[in-house]
């Protein structure tokens, strides 16, 4: 294939998505000064449907399908995704060619009175669109009124400032990338809330036979993050969970070649929290993901996830 002198980067159109895509564009421009890089905005299903909880739409490719179709059709040359949005099944002909260095993967609480989760007033109203966050919050604060919250960060913070909500939970990584990391009232510790699979990292997706792009995006790879995200995604795939189910996981490379990983499966009412961990070598990320998933399944995780899917299907 002849090398192109213009490369098109596919991205969602939100402020955060464009910040992420522009960061990738900037990094590539520094290295490949003779190549023109442009961003093509593509609207996904998840961007179009804002008045329905994500879990009820169906979660396979909500924020990725249209981007992947553009990649397969060669309308774009690579796509920038938030890793947490990516289904574990990648379409034939495509691959994750690079995983970038992870931003802070924690979830963050923003509250009107700058209070942490455990100090919110009795019965306070908290907004989140995530079943995972909802379940883990209920496990420690059964008294809170948790409501579904969709929209970009400005929309969510606006509902907080208007008094409609007392608190919201968002990804700290997104706040940091938007330059608003200081608005967090609390960075929620992992012993209370484990983050979504891949949270904080970016995945660069490309066509499997596109050698020019494969070679170009190597400069974006952070190998520790790639191992960690791969382990988390293996676990998610084994649990047959999508990005809208109450599964949290955190894998981390511990210098020099070891990795530790913990994960959680929660019932929607927060009454059952199944949590476990494994340790191993980074090259054994696949085995570690399977081992930890099997531990959770053996302790009742499969029944919880099956019950949740059945309940969502009935609604």
TrEMBL record:
Residues 7-214 form the Porphobilinogen deaminase N-terminal domain. The modification S-(dipyrrolylmethanemethyl)cysteine is found at residue 243. Keywords: Porphyrin biosynthesis, Transferase. Its EC number is 2.5.1.61. Its cofactor is dipyrromethane. It catalyses: 4 porphobilinogen + H2O = hydroxymethylbilane + 4 NH4(+). Binds 1 dipyrromethane group covalently. One of its GO terms (biological process) is protoporphyrinogen IX biosynthetic process. One of its GO terms (cellular component) is cytoplasm. InterPro entries: HemC, Porphobilin_deaminase_cofac_BS, Porphobilin_deaminase_N, Porphobilinogen_deaminase_C, Porphobilinogen_deaminase_C_sf. HAMAP family: Porphobil_deam (MF_00260). Belongs to the HMBS family. Tetrapolymerization of the monopyrrole PBG into the hydroxymethylbilane pre-uroporphyrinogen in several discrete steps. Monomer. This is Porphobilinogen deaminase.
């Amino acid at each position: 294939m002849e090398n192109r002198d213009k490369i098109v980067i596919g991205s969602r159109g939100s402020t955060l998505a464009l910040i992420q895509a522009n960061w990738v564009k900037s990094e590539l421009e520094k290295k490949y000064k003779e190549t023109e890089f442009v961003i093509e905005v593509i609207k996904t299903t998840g961007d179009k449907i804002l008045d329905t909880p994500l879990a009820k739409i169906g979660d396979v490719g909500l924020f990725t399908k249209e981007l992947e179709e553009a990649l397969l059709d060669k309308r774009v040359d690579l796509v920038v995704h938030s890793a947490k949005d990516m289904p574990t099944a990648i379409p034939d002909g495509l691959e994750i060619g690079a995983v970038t260095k992870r931003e802070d993967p924690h979830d963050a609480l923003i509250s009107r009175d700058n209070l942490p989760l455990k100090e919110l007033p009795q019965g306070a109203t908290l907004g989140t669109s995530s079943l995972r966050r909802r379940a883990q919050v209920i496990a420690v604060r059964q008294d809170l009124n948790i409501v579904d919250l969709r929209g970009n960060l400005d929309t969510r913070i606006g509902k907080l400032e208007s008094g409609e909500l007392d608190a919201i939970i968002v990804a700290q990584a997104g706040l940091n990338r938007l330059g608003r990391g200081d608005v967090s009232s609390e960075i929620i510790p992992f012993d209370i809330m484990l983050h979504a699979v891949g949270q904080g990292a970016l995945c660069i997706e490309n066509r499997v036979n596109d050698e020019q792009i494969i070679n170009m995006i190597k400069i974006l790879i952070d190998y520790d993050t790639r191992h960690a995200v791969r382990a988390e995604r293996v676990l998610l795939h084994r649990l047959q969970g999508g990005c809208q189910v109450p599964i949290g996981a955190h894998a981390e490379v511990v210098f020099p070649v070891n990795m530790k990983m913990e994960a959680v499966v929660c019932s929607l009412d927060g009454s059952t929290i199944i949590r476990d961990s494994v340790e191993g070598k980074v090259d054994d990320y696949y085995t570690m993901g399977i081992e930890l998933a099997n531990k959770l399944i053996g302790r009742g995780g499969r029944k919880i996830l099956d019950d949740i899917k059945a309940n969502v299907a009935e609604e």
